[in-house]
Description:
- The protein is α/β, with parallel strands linked by helices.
- It folds into 2 domains: 2-142; 201-368, Rossmann fold (3-Layer(aba) Sandwich), CATH 3.40.50.
- 46% of the residues lie in helices and 15% in strands.
- The strands form 2 sheets. Strands 6-5-4-7-8-10-9 form a 7-stranded mixed β-sheet, sandwiched between helices.
- The relative contact order is 0.12.
Amino acid sequence: MVCDELENFGDWYLEKLEEAEQMYLKMLNMPHKYPERTESAKNAKPLRKVLLNLLERKDLTLIKRSKLLELIEIKRRFNPFNPHAYYTKLMSATISSRILYQLLKDPKPFVKACELFETKDTYVKLVKMLASVSGLLWLAFSVGLKYCHIPSIVLEKHGITQVGYGKYLPLFDVRKMFRIENVENLMKEIFVCEPYKFEEVGIVPKDRSLFVDLGAALGETTLWYSLYVEEFTSLAVEGSEEALKVLRWNLKLTKEYLKRKNANVLPINKFVRSNKDFEDILKFAPNEYSEMVIKMDIEGGEREVLKGIADLLKEMKPVLSVASYHLWDDLIVLPNIIKSSNDSYKLYLKPRVTVLNAPYGFTFNLFAK
């Protein structure tokens, strides 16, 4: 089976690391370009040894705020950068270093989780990519290469233009259809990268559907969903009152547009943790709909919610699109929770490596239908 490739990850990775080590030493030994690095090259430790030592540290997954601020200040002195981009890349590298550690120590949990997916090749490639590339990125931060360059996309090419500043945030015109207030990063992630659909397996927005937007933030995902459908209902569930304030304002800005779409968007201030919580919000749902789609991006709380609504997954089997990159073992834990709730689910994984599109190293969702 293709999943067995993960069993031999250690040998494969160390070979790649030795190749990277040669490149690193070659870079350090270029006195005509980097004269200040010549001396350090003489005493350079092999990358493999440095990285494996780092992986054995007990505090690997803990980035103290003081250390983070120190790293940001160092980077600021070298060249201008986006602090949010630096922070997100650092966090993603930290999570991935745990994946790397697990694969080198005991890959069996990943191998077993891989077997649950229809997209097994994708799972293996993604796990190997996260462990190798981002593991080396963590090393780059740790040894002080201080490199953080993230190419950005031009929103205008995708029909999105910033047209000034609104009541709370920058104001964006979306394809001359509506205007909303939001932040550039989210506009890129949701409207350009479109992480919540998987056309190849038939998971796309559908007319007359019920869209349950858990972690609705400022309303951008619901409004993205509206671009593709007519006559739908969205339960925009958000636990942050501050975010909900902007979401409600955006619904006012898009009132006429949503009316033309026959869309009913209901903002709900709630944290969903159980079947009872979910039943409470479904009271606002229409009596009939073509299908229920649950989108879930709640900053690491996905596993708690999936466990809490296990009965609903068993009885109603809604389509799921679940962010699976907040915690290092999401790719192990989340598919097991879904399958244990309803074994008839088919699971898919579609990575969105967005480093060339938006200031995130990667985003990827687990889809289930």
